[in-house]
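Tip: read the tokens left to right.
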């Protein structure tokens, strides 16, 4: 058998913690000397201690762990618990990574406040009527890639070769969720009747700006356009959504696109 100090070194659990586990009847020593009170442990007690530590990693309280240890949960069931916990943590990591990227993009916007500096010139042009396969609903900006994937899944087709489009509508009640329409701009009307196609209307005067972006992240293109619109005597045309057309992937930056922001305007 091992003294508590030795067992602590083997298990990498502090002596204080082992004493506490003894006090609450979670892990009793194999033997306690009645004269000295010294605690002694066996090598086999490392296995239940490992289970206790595993349950702690899963977020259970010590009271709950005591009950679980008494129930003698099978290894397969513990493995399943860990798989679920791993999936939860992975999801949290992805959410936090997305949040970090949003913070970085917002910081970039703050740093560019009041500065009109674009990679391409803002161009006024006429935009023709165009067929679009789309889905409109209230969603967050982070859900845009999922909505595009849903369109492909629902129809059992892959439209990824077509330009993606996002239309932003006004919504007074919306907070995190925004009134969005996402879809694919089609080169021609499909003969397949299952493809639900609508036409984006023609707009005679559209202020447009090419830029690099990610579909699920904010960017500075809107503020650049807003400054240009104010400085050049235009105003945004009512009842026309902001359009963003993702033309093709940017091979220099993974997951980014070359996109065009389009805002319908009229002369003041």
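Filled-in amino acids:
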């Amino acid at each position: 058998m091992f003294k508590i100090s030795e067992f602590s070194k083997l298990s990498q659990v502090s002596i204080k913690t082992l004493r506490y586990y003894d006090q609450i009847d979670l892990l009793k020593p194999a033997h306690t000397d009645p004269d000295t009170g010294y605690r002694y442990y066996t090598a086999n007690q490392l296995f239940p201690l490992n289970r206790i530590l595993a349950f702690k990693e899963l977020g259970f309280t010590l009271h709950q762990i005591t009950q679980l240890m008494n129930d003698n949960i099978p290894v397969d069931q513990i493995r399943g618990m860990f798989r679920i916990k791993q999936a939860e943590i992975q999801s949290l990591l992805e959410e936090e990574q997305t949040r970090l990227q949003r913070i970085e993009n917002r910081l970039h916007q703050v740093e560019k406040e009041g500065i009109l500096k674009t990679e391409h010139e803002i161009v006024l042009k006429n935009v023709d009527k165009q067929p679009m396969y789309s889905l409109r609903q209230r969603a967050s900006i982070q859900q845009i890639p999922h909505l595009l994937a849903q369109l492909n899944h629902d129809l059992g087709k892959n439209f990824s070769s077509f330009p993606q489009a996002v239309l932003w509508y006004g919504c007074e009640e919306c907070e995190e969720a925004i009134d969005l329409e996402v879809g694919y701009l089609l080169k021609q009307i499909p003969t397949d009747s299952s493809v639900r196609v609508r036409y984006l209307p023609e707009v005679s005067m559209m202020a447009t700006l090419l830029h690099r972006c990610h579909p699920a992240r904010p960017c500075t293109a809107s503020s650049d356009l807003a400054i240009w619109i104010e400085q050049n005597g235009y105003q945004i045309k009512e009842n026309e959504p902001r359009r963003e057309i993702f033309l093709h992937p940017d091979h220099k930056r993974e997951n980014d696109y070359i996109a065009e922001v389009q805002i319908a305007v009229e002369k003041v």
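The two ends are 89 Å apart (CA to CA). The longest strand covers residues 203-213.
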